[in-house]
Amino acid sequence: MLQLAINREASDDGAEFGVWTGYQVPDNRGLWHPLVARLYDYWLAVKPPDRLPGREHIVPEDIAPLWSRLCLLDVVRRPLRYRYRFCGSELARSLGGEVTGRWLDEVRPQLIADPEPRQRLRFMALTGRPTWRRGPPNWVRDKDHRTVESCLLPLASDGTTVDKMIGIVVAFDRNGREI
Description:
CATH architecture: 2-Layer Sandwich
Oligomer: single chain
Number of helices: 5
CATH superfamily: PAS domain
Shape: globular
């Protein structure tokens, strides 16, 4: 079952982002996987008041236990595209190999056809708001992955314009066990 927290009001800029329009990160993180909650809490802790954190606020050593499940995406505008700057070993394995330096839409061509993940990334790039999702994978990764939990967090070197996204993904098998 897909879990999102939706606020049905229009987005800040009036844009339409499909299911992500009006999205809010759930206040209750008690059901989140601990690694996912840890990254989100870390992002909140390093976030300057009334601004987005930039890559310079992220200290890799502070989140070392999360590395294998992390990715860092560059946000490239005109046209809006995303490139893997870093992809942890566990995530790379589930994607079928090393993807660092490659374009997300080339690694996962399904992104072009499926509006939900595309709208999620666009929502974040344009609004600077984080997202969390738990549900079936948006594209086939590993046949054993039945559910994924992910949190994507915007980063902005100027505090406003999203130029990177850091994310974490935890996969679960059909019995709900972490893979």
